[in-house]
Amino acid sequence: MLKILIGMSDTGGGHRSAAESLAAVIKQQRGDSVEVVVADLLSNHTFWPLNQVRHAYAPVVTRAPSLWKLSWWLPEATWRWKLLQRSFLPLLRGPLGGYLRAQHPDLYISVHPLLNHMPLRLLHAAGNYCPAATVVTDLGGGHPTWFCPDIDLITVGSQALYDLGLQRGVPRSRLRLLGLPVNPRFGAPGQDQASLRRALNLAEGRPTALVIGGGEGMGPLAEITRALAQALSAVGGQVAVICGRNEKLRAELAGQDWPLPVVVQGFVRNMSEWMAASDCVVTKAGPGTIIEACIVGRPIMLSDFIEGQETGNVTYVVENGIGAFSREPEEIGRIVRGWLTPGNAGLAAMSLRARAMARPHATTDITNALLNLVNRRTPRRDRRGPVPKKRPLRLT
Ligand code: UDP
Predict the structure, then answer these.
(1) Closest residue (by CA) to atom 20 of ligand 1?
(2) Residues 135 and 268 grouped into a single domain
């Protein structure tokens, strides 16, 4: 049986969504002939402080921007990145190296910027030269560590990321612009809006704004929801707020009185249904959410972006005419009210443009490219060979 290991980490929600989407499509295509393991390698197979990145991500991004900038600056110069690897690799040899050796995959796929160079070195050190791929889950810009020139295939979702890959020394032959992986449930036919609204406890006839802050429920979602509640009262609207893993926000919003129906949720596993039930999406500039909204054809009101990897996503949305950007809750309220005013033709036009931008077949295209890597390799037992006790760790 073919064994595929997908390395991810729950920093935000996009990496897990991408990993699970790929796993679902690989299983659809290959059924029982393949075993797919999705593993949070950073949280479960590294050491302190690396294994805390998942918990530190949201606070660092929102409250310590200089620390966040440092995490970009450090690997930007190749010599600094090599120095970092040289310090971390020997320490990772036990926890991460041991796990990779035990899993012994036939194909390794990374969907996280920190899980490319080092897992590859550790696989090689364990004598496993299986094909390795990176599926970049950023859109308008990306962390420099996404691009390891020795990885067999790197898929990206935009020209900006393709160019960044070339700049980081990845040969053209290993880079492919295929789109971002999205769960096939998004945009699946048969999602009738009225019945979805009933199932999700939303009022059937009201124009609906869906508020999201990524997997962590980041940003001033409480202020935005209050501004939307005020603004949408005038058009008989309603608001659904998805707080993700931000339990504090969920409790705060759920305990309030609102001038119109407001449905508050924690982390949901059926985002495709929430999007299909709504008329527009209000979100930080997360690439996963943007692409999902495009596939469902929902205009996007961007309320914030993470400096660095999400800056380019704002340009992507605004310049392509599929939404707007503002950090001011009142302005967000005004813009969304304009969109949701009955008879506004602009909303339908944006929705059409969003659908046209979407690459609904991206996950299948990426999966085919990934499986091709194993198809064209020799059978596992021929390339496995004896596993040496200790191999040197080489850096590139
Ligand atoms: N998401 C989800 N349930 C939630 C909140 C978010 O499944 O309650 C998913 C969302 O559909 C998207 C991902 O988490 O696939 C968020 O990814 P994005 O790139 O937008 O932002 P991130 O959280 O990674 O910063």
Answers:
(1) 286
(2) no
Report CA(12)–ligand 1 centroid distance (Å). Answer: 7
Establish if 395 belongs to a structural domain: no
**Cβ of 215 below 6 Å from ligand 1:** yes
- The span from the CA of 47 to the CA of 44, in Å, is 8
Q: Is the CB of 17 under 6 A from ligand 1?
A: yes
pLDDT in tens, the chain (396 residues): 999 999 999 999 999 999 999 999 999 999 999 999 999 999 999 999 899 999 998 899 888 989 998 988 999 999 999 999 999 999 999 999 999 999 999 999 999 999 999 999 999 999 999 999 999 999 999 999 999 999 999 999 999 999 999 999 999 999 999 999 999 999 888 779 999 999 999 999 999 999 999 999 999 999 999 999 999 999 999 999 999 999 999 999 999 999 999 999 999 999 999 999 999 999 999 999 999 999 999 999 999 999 888 999 999 999 999 999 999 999 999 999 999 999 999 999 999 999 999 999 999 999 999 999 998 755 444 444 444 445 555 565
- Based on the fold, state whether residues 335 and 372 are members of the same structural domain: no
Rounded-to-integer distance, Cα 379 and Cα 381, Å:
6
Determine the number of helices (DSSP H) and then strands (DSSP E) in the chain. Answer: 18, 12
Distance CA 1, CA 7 (A): 19
- Residue of 290, 279, 293, 390 lying closest to 340 (CA atoms): 279
CATH code, domain with 108: 3.40.50.2000
Q: Is residue 297 part of a domain?
A: yes
* Distance, CA of 209 to CA of 289 (rounded, Å): 14
Ligand 1 pocket member 219 (CB < 6 A)? no
C-alpha to C-alpha distance for 143 and 127, rounded to whole angstroms: 29
Burial per residue of 156-181, b for 16 or more beta-carbon CB atoms within 10 angstroms, e otherwise: bbbebbbebbeebebeeebbbebbbb
How far apart CA 261 and CA 332 sit, in angstroms, is 18
pTM: 0.92
